């Protein structure tokens, strides 16, 4: 089964994402900020990162830039979550290397569907 890292500083939203994906059988790890996520990515192997745009210690965009040259990065999919949903925010995420941008708030059903499509 696919292994996913969720990096989200809002505890309630982080738990909602994790519970929704665990119910579908995915193996989930979590981080409370970008720096913790970066350390976990260096130590582990993930198929998908679900990362918040605005996090303490390292933003989602900074995290994407920090992992660009890591070994195995080409197999790692990235979904950016953000309450900032302007076209320019989406473009910056995609240009940085995100495969998908999902605006908050979102439906857990939509999240599960998109994750399934990304990991197929």
From TrEMBL:
The modification 4-aspartylphosphate is found at residue 52. It comes from the Bacteria. Transmembrane segments: none annotated. Keywords: Phosphoprotein. Residues 3-119 form the Response regulatory domain. PROSITE patterns: RESPONSE_REGULATORY. Gene3D superfamilies: 3.40.50.2300. SMART domains: REC (SM00448). This is Response regulator.
């Amino acid at each position: 089964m696919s292994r996913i890292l969720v990096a989200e500083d809002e505890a309630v939203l982080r738990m909602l994402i994790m519970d929704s994906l665990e119910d579908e059988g995915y193996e989930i790890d979590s981080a409370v900020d970008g720096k913790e996520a970066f350390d976990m990515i260096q130590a582990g192997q993930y198929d998908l990162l679900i990362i918040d745009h605005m996090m303490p210690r390292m933003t989602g965009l900074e995290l994407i830039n920090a992992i660009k040259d890591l070994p195995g990065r080409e197999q790692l999919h990235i979904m950016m979550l953000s309450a900032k949903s302007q076209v320019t925010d989406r473009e910056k995420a995609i240009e940085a290397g995100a495969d998908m941008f999902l605006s908050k708030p979102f439906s857990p059903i939509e999240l599960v569907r998109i994750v399934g499509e990304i990991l197929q």
